[in-house]
């Protein structure tokens, strides 16, 4: 193999690697709109489960699709994210934080909603990602 062929092979491998990396970086996670929830509960029930025993709640809910019903207490939005926080009585602030891929129209603070998302764990709030509005 000549030096020119080796350089051409390296460039080709680099270009293919860059294209694959770009595809994987920009690939959208499939939505949960058509996925049946593993659990359906209120924001209070979900938050209280994590607040009482985080390890047990993680083993039960982490990675599962959960439909959560509660009152919208906060909405945050910027150019790359949109999230809705459902209130929980025992939470210091918030309760269940639901992040969406796209801005969901028609949700306002004070609304009673059901949101479905994949449980990612517990920080100060229970975190649901890849959320979708089920019912307003």
Task: Provide a descriptive summary of the structure in words.
Strand 5 and strand 6 form a beta hairpin. The chain has 3 helices and 6 strands, in the order αβααβββββ. Helices cover 31% and strands 37% of the residues. A 5-stranded mixed β-barrel has the order 2-3-4-6-5. The chain is of the alpha/beta class and 136 residues long.
User: How would a textbook summarize the main sheet?
Assistant: 5 strands, mixed, barrel
Low-pLDDT regions: none
Compute the CA-based radius of gyration: 20 Å
Alpha-carbon distance between the two ends: 66 Å
Number of continuous helical runs = 3
Q: What is the count of β-strands?
A: 6
Structural class from helices and strands? alpha/beta
Order of helices and strands: HEHHEEEEE
Mean pLDDT across all amino acids = 87
Q: Share of helix among residues?
A: 25-40%
What spatial order of strands do you see in the largest sheet?
2-3-4-6-5
- What would the principal axes of the Cα set say about the shape? elongated
Q: Keyphrases for this structure?
A:
single chain, 136 residues, alpha/beta, five-stranded mixed barrel, 3 helices, 31% helix, 37% strand, elongated
